[in-house]
Structure formats: C-alpha cells, structure tokens
Amino acid sequence: MSSSSIVGRGRALFPESEPSTSASVWNPDFSTTRVSCSTLARRSIICHMASPPAEEWWKQQPQQHRSSSPISCFPSQVASHGPALAPDFFEERPFELQHGISSPSPSGFPSKIAPPVEKEHSAQETPTSKGKRSGVPVYVMLPLDSINSGNNQVNRARAMNASFQALKSAGVEGVMVDVWWGIVEKDGPCNYNWSGYRELLEMAKKHGLKVQAVMSFHQCGGNVGDSAFIPLPWWVVEEAKNNPDMVYTDRYGNRNFEYLSLGCDHLPVLKGRTPVQAYSDFMRSFKESFSDMLGDVIVEIQVGMGPAGELRYPGYPERDGIWKFPGVGEFQCHDNYMLASLKASAESIGKPDWGCAPSDAGHYNQWPEDSIFFKRDGGWNTDYGRFFLEWYSGKLIEHGESVLTAAEGIFRGSPVRLSAKVAGIHWHYGTRSHAPELTAGYYNTRFRDGYLPLARMFGRHGVTFNFTCFEMRDVEQPAAAQCSPEGLLKQVVAAAKSAGVPLAGENALPRYDEGAYHQIVMKSRLEVEGEESMERAYEPMCCFTFLRMNERLFHPENWRRFVQFVKEIGDGKGSSSSREHEHRASELLVATKPLIQEAAAALV
User: Fold this and answer.
1) Most Cβ neighbours (<10 Å): which of 7, 46, 247, 379?
2) Angstrom distance (rounded) from CA 43 to CA 50
3) DSSP β-bridge partners for residue 210
4) Catalytic residue IDs
5) DSSP code per residue over 273-316
6) DSSP code of residue 130
7) How much is the average pLDDT of 85-90?
8) Euclidean distance between CA atoms 67 and 422, whole angstroms
9) Dist. CA 195–CA 26, nearest whole Å
10) Does the pLDDT of residue 529 top 70, yes or no?
11) pLDDT of amino acid 371
C-alpha cells in the first residue's frame, strides 16, 4: 500500500474475453476449486447491458436511490463542529461555531446544529490492544509487489521468510499486505485466484505474525512510493475505455484510472454488476477462502475506497507530473455521472445555474491565493461554494457508506476488525479554505470540521479510523505552504474521540531516523480532553503500521533504530528508560544480524 501524506496511490490492454461465471477459491489443502459466482454473492449476476446515459439514468432512478437530494446537499440539521484545533497562527473560530449555529443554509438563515448521531455500533477494542495504560502494537507494511502479478506467487520468497523471522524477533505484532483486485480477479469477473496470498499468509502464520489485509480496489503505480505497477483488472480497464465516464475526470477531460468513479457505484457497468457489487463479491470470496485464518492470523480488514486505498478523490495525481507538492489539486467530478448528480441536486433546490463545478478554482499546481475560488474570501465561502462543497464531500461520504455497509454485512460475526483510511493532507492547512483538502473531498475549512462527519460515518459501521503523517512535525515542512501535520492530527484525534471510534496510525513517508521515531512514540499516546475536568488525558492508539519493509529497513543502523522504536512504543511511553531500550535493541541487533543480512541481500 502506497504512502500518502503528499500523495496517494494505467492501464493494461488485453484481448477481450468472455466473462467467466465461475470463481477460483483457494483451499487450505492448496487445491483450486471452481464454484459458481452466484454462491459468492447475494444476488446472481445479471446479463451484460449497456450503461444508460448518465442524465437519463438519473431521471429513471427512484427517489430513495438518488445519491444527492435537497436533504443530502443542505440538511436542515448539520453535524456539530468540534473545538478549535488549529495551530497558533490560526484565527479564532467564528461566533457561529462557538455557539452551536451552522453556516448559512441556501435560504440564507442559519440552522441549529444537531446533537451527535447515535452510533449503530460501539467501537470495539482491537484484538491486539494492550490496554489504555500500556503500549501500541506495531505492524509493518509489506512491499507493494509481495505477490507476483504474472504468476500469482510470493515474490522473493527467501527474503520474505528471513524478513518475517527478523520482524518477529524484533517484537513486531504483524504485517500489512495489499490484496490487489488487479491480481486476484484479473482473469475475468468472479474468477478469483487466491493462491499467492494463501502462500504468503501461511508464511506469516508459521512465524507467528498477525495480518492486516487491505482490500485494494485501486491501481498501484504513478505516485510517490509506488515501486510497482499493478493496474485494475484488465476487463475493468476495458470497460472503462469503452465508457470513460466510469473513471474520475478533471475539468480538462483527463481521465484517472486509479479507481472507479463513485458516480457509477450503483450502475451495472462491470459486465452486469455494479462496482459496489464487484467489491462485495471480492470481499465475500476472500472471507470464504480464508475463513480458517480469520481472527487467528488475519485480525484486520482495511477496506479500500479510493486512490491509495484512501477514502478520497484523486485530487492530487502524481502520474506524469500532473500535480506537484504543494499544489491545491483539482476537483474530480467531471464524468457525466457525477455531473448529472450535481445538476439534479442544483435543480432540486431551485438553483439550476448551480449545477456545474467551479470554473475559477485554478489548476493543480497553483496555491490558494492564486485562484478566485480558494483565495481568502473566495467562492468557497459563498452560498454556491457551500452548496457545491456539501455535494462534493457528501458524495464521498455516501460512497463510504455504500462500501462499508457491504463490508460490514459480509464480515459481521467474524473475529476481525474493519478499518478505513483517510489521507493526511496537511499542506495549506493554515489557510482559510484548506484548498487541497477540499479537492480531495474533505470539506474542512477554517469554519467547518470536515473530519467529524467521516469519523461518525466510520462509527456507524464499527470501523477503525486509520490516519497517516504521525511522524511529521510542523517545523520540518515548508513554512510558505502553511503546512501543519501536527495541527491536522490533533483535529483528527478530536474527531475520532468525539465519534467514539478507535484511531490507528501510519507514517506518511519512509523514515528511519530517530526524530521520526520519537515523534511517532509521542503522538501514539493520543492527547484528549479529560472527561470531567480541563486536565489532559492520554490513551494509546489501537495500533501503528510502519511504512514499509524494504532493504533500507534492514541496514544495520536503521534496523537498530527500528528495533528500539518497536520496544519503546510497545512498552508504552515512559515505561522504561531510554538506556534500557538501547540495550535491548543492541542485544536484538546481534541476535538478528544473520537474518537482516539475508533479508537485505534478497530484497535488493
């Protein structure tokens, strides 16, 4: 899984073939069984049909199935806003937010803020949690190409085996692995091949490592940290080439094949299935194929819902140099399905002229003050701007609701936790508009908390909130871009706490220095307001996942620091002296030297 603080996470052309109506399920005895796709889904696959024009399709839908409505665009009661969490250079939050009044509604009148939404599921303690007074378990992300996309076997098996031994010896709890849609279902619809992942998970089990399995429905490649290229299944790409409105599109007509547009979530554009049905069938097959490992080896299912596996739009695509840090990015809503939804939403509130995306939001690499829409008093803070941003962010939350509802139903009763990842977009966080967050789909501004609605949505489905940039400090970032990863993290911690959902962390970029490790350990004890006083309280996040396992990690000096970090964060801050951690790390360095030498050599 690719890193993403400033980045997220194409195309393969193959001859068209007839869709398969059976699926390959990998059994524990390493035999492959063909089963009917209908046994994997609650519904059978309907015949392939042409996708209707977006606007005509929209008009045909029953009201309850429409993704945007006057209610979703302008709820009469909006989510309450959290406390002021910005760094010192932020201005005081406005009177309205301090006194429970929302920003103006379309009618121009403010609406009272609703009380917190009651969660359908209480947050569950993680299987590996060591308690509020102890430490944080550490997982390590495996290489993106851990499974060979050509032969569906474990890549560099000798190195993987030695690496697993070393990680276990260092006290690592487990590993995170991307389960690529583009590898498992590449041979045709519902034709699943889990053989490579069975081999990898059996290896993890042998070494006593737990597994976080990421349902990776996105493309790998084209972003910082992507060392491999794994496209979406070829038959999905073929459908998208025949109907380009299936993928996210910017206002210049650039198509992004990293992830299917949420605009077609409920359209039968994939050989008769909708994208949400395809994601559901994939997860259901995974559950059935690895039922013997759920809870014992596989302890977490992270549900990918966008580029880099994150719930967001591809507002800042790295491929071909389209976007460069710290540009504001661009809105990704110009496929016909999204435009039809926007138009219908505008018409439903009697504002047909609002049925188009902003035309003055600049381009990918501009800064907020360079564009009319994002500047200090720009269009983002007008009635039209609020309408558009409510719709744009609302569609993203609806997408999350759809996919997580499916995942929750599939894994209900299984001894695994569900998680979802949100991007750490920290640049221009100190401006009023928070432009890069807006283009990614997070309606977070100086006057509005955009992370509390996400956290509450996760809470409704019993999902852990996974967030990144735990290793970053404000002083390390370019001052001119008003970056604040620490301010952003503080806001997210407050949102998760308010919604009652567990928070898990990752580092955004590969770091092996003591400064980064120290920052992670400090931030792993989440600072929250005391329940009955103004005193500060601390509790550990549920787990931390380190980015990532490679030959650099096993360099002797890097490995020494990493082992010391695992011990320190695992024991809990302040539970033992730094000298003791260094001594234990030195002992482990000597003990694991042959393993790390073998792993480093084989990973090159």
Assistant:
1) 247
2) 19
3) 174
4) 310, 506
5) B-HHHHHHHHHHHHHHHTTTTBTTTEEEEEE--SGGGBSS---S
6) -
7) 35
8) 22
9) 6
10) no
11) 96
Tokens standing for 127? Answer: 């299987």
557: buried, middle or exposed (CB in 10 Å: 19+, 13-18, 0-12)? exposed
The tokens for 480 are 């001119």
Query: How far is Cα 86 from Cα 21, in angstroms, rounded to an integer?
Result: 53
In angstroms, rounded to a whole number, what is the distance separating the alpha carbons of residues 340 and 267? 13
Q: So what's the pLDDT on residue 419?
A: 98
Distances (CA, A) of 136 to 103, 356, 406, 425, 570: 39, 46, 29, 24, 5
Closest residue by Cα to residue 507 from 466, 452, 552, 561:
466
In order of 195, 282, 496, the CA distances from 185 in angstroms are 12, 8, 34
**Does residue 326 sit in helix, strand or coil?**
coil
Residue 185 structure tokens? 């279902």
Are the C-beta atoms of residues 121 and 459 closer than 8 Å to each other? yes
The residues, ordered by sequence, that sit 6+ positions from 187 with a Cβ below 8 Å of its Cβ are 20, 24, 193
What residue has token string 């907020």? 368
Structure tokens at 157: 């098996």
Say which DSSP state 533 is in. S
DSSP string, 93-137: PPHHHHTTB-S--TTS---BPPPPPPPSSPPPPPTT---TTS---
Is 189 within 8 Å of 273 (Cβ atoms)?
yes
What's the whole-number mean pLDDT along residues 60-72?
38
Reported in sequence order, the residue ranges of 16-133 that DSSP labels E, i.e. its strands, are: 22-26, 32-36
Residues 6+ apart with CB under 8 A from 269: 51, 239, 243, 246, 275
